[in-house]
Amino acid sequence: MLGACLSALRRVRVTQGSPLLRVLLVAGVFTYGSHSVLTNLSKGDDGRVAYNVASVVLMTELCKLLISCTLALLTLGTRGVVGEVRAGAFKPRFFLLLSVPALLYALNNNTAYYAQQAMDPVSFMVLCNFKIITTAILFRLIMNRSLSRNQWLAMPILLFSSILNSMAGLAKHSSIVDESAQDTNILLKSALYVSPYGLMLMVMYCTISGFAGVYAEYVLKSRMHASLHMQNIPLYLCGVVMNATAYFWSSSSTNAVIDDTALRLSHSATSLVWMLGPFARLFDGYNGWTWVIILTQAGNGLILSVVMKHSTNIVKLFMIALSMLLSTATSILAFDMSLSWEFVLALVLVLWAIALYHTPAPASSAATMSTGPARPVAHGAAAAFGESDQQRSLLPFVHKQGYSGMLKQV
Fold first, then answer.
1. Of all residues in the chain, what percent are helix, strand and coil, respectively (each to 5)?
2. Sorting pLDDT into bands at 50, 70 and 90, what band is 302?
3. Mean pLDDT across the stretch 196-222?
4. Which of 31, 229, 239, 367 is the right S-S partner for 300, CB 3.0 to 4.6 Å?
5. Ordered DSSP codes for 379-391
6. SS3 119
7. CA-CA distances (angstroms) from residue 255 to 29, 259, 261, 262, 274?
8. What residue segments make up the domains of the chain, in order of their start?
9. What rounded mean pLDDT belongs to the chain?
C-alpha cells in the first residue's frame, strides 16, 4: 500500500492550467486569507500576542524546510535526490542567489506580523493590495514587461481606494483608544483602525514583497527542469538561518533567561538553558492558534512557490485579492466589525481596480507591449547560473501566455 502511494505521488505533475494547480490556488486563497484573522485570534485579552513573532516566522520556515525535504525524498527517491545534488542543485552560487529572496522574505514576514498588530485584519488585507502596484512597477523595471492601459489605470484607482481606507482608519484610531488603558496602543478589537506606524510598515512590506516576488519567480523558473522541492530546500535553509538570527537578536539575553527560568531548575537543566540561550524560550506564549498560524503559513509558502514556478506573480496577486474578500467576510463574522461608508467605498474601488488590472488587453494594445530583453538584474541572475539568457529567460513564458492566458488557470 505504501509503495503504491509513493508511486502515485511520484507521478503527480503540476503544469500550467492543470487541475492540481487550480486546487492549490483555491487552497492558497484560504491559507493567505486566514492569516490576519488567526493572528488576531492568537492575541490575549489585552489585545497583544504573548509569543515572540520572530519565533513564529522561524518555526514557519523550519516547517517549510522539513516539508520540502520530505517531499523531495518521497517524489524523487534517494537516487533522484543524489542525482539532483550531482547536477548542481546545491552549488554555492545557487545558494547565494537564493539568499537574496530568503533575506527579503525573512524581513517581510516579520514586517507583516508587526504590521498586523498596528491595524485591524480587514485594513491589513486592503492595504496589502499595494503589492499590485509595486509588483507591476518592479516587473516592468526589472523584467522589461510593459503593462496595458487598463492595468496602468488600475493603479491610481487602487492607490485612491487604499488611501481612503487608511484615512478612515486613522480617523477611527483616535476615537477608539481605550482611555482607561495606560498603553495607547491597546485598541478595541471590534473597530477598524490603522496607526501611522502601521502605514509605514505597509509601505515597506509592499515594496519588499514586490521585488522579492519578481526575483524569486525568475530564480525558480531559471531551472524549469529542476525539482521544485530541491529548489525550495536551499531557499528555506537560508530562511531558517536568517530568521534564527532575527529571533536571537529580538530575544532576551542568555543571562535574562537564566535569571528568570534556569535558577528554578536542576543543575543539568540549567546547563541546557545555558547552551540554548534565547532559544530556551522559543515557544513561550504559544497557544493552539499559534500552531495553526505556523502550519497554515508553511502551507501557504509552499503553495506560492508552486504558483511562481508554474504560473506568474500576476496570478499570485489575483489569489491574494480573492483572499482579501475571504478575510473581510471572516473578520466581520468573528469580530463583529462595523463597516463605515469609507471602507465600503474603498472595498468597491479595490475590487474594480483588480478587475480592471486583469482585463485582457485589446489586440492592438497587446501587439505594442514590450518584448525586450530582461533588465541587468535578470541578466546577472542568468549569468550566475552559467547558462545563456535564452535558456534562463522567463519572458517568453510571460509573453506567450499573456494575462488572459494566465488567468485561465484560475
1. 75, 0, 25
2. very high
3. 87
4. 31
5. HHHHHHTTS-HHH
6. strand
7. 43, 6, 10, 9, 8
8. 20-252+288-362
9. 72
Neighbouring CB atoms inside 10 A of 23's CB total: 12
Report in angstroms the alpha-carbon separations of 249 from 55, 278, 321, 327: 11, 9, 34, 32
N-to-C CA span, the chain: 33
CA angle, 234 as apex, 229 and 237 as ends, to 5°? 110
Contacts (Cβ under 8 Å, ≥6 apart) of 46: 186
The per-residue pLDDT for 295 is 96
Residue 337 backbone class (left: φ over 0; alpha: ψ -120 to 50; beta: rest)? beta
pLDDT tens-digit series, residues 5-40:
556 545 556 666 678 888 888 899 899 888 878 888
Beta bridge partners of 23: none
How many residues in the chain?
410
**Which of the 8 DSSP states describes residue 362?**
P
- Residues 149-165 as b/e (b if ≥16 CB within 10 A, e otherwise) read ebbeebbebbbebbebb
Cell 528568570 locates to 260
Distances from the Cα of 18 to the Cαs of 23, 24, 316, 322, in angstroms? Answer: 9, 10, 16, 20
Q: Which residues pair with 119 in a beta bridge?
A: 194
Task: Tell me which of 398 and 327 has the higher pLDDT.
Answer: 327
Angle at 218 between CA 130 and CA 146, to 5 degrees: 55
CA pair distance 367, 364, nearest whole angstrom? 5
Q: Are 245 and 257 in contact (CB under 8 A)?
A: no
The mean pLDDT of 233-256, rounded to a whole number, is 77
Place of cell 540549567: 270
334-383 pLDDT, tens per residue? 666 666 676 678 778 778 877 887 677 665 555 444 444 555 555 554 45
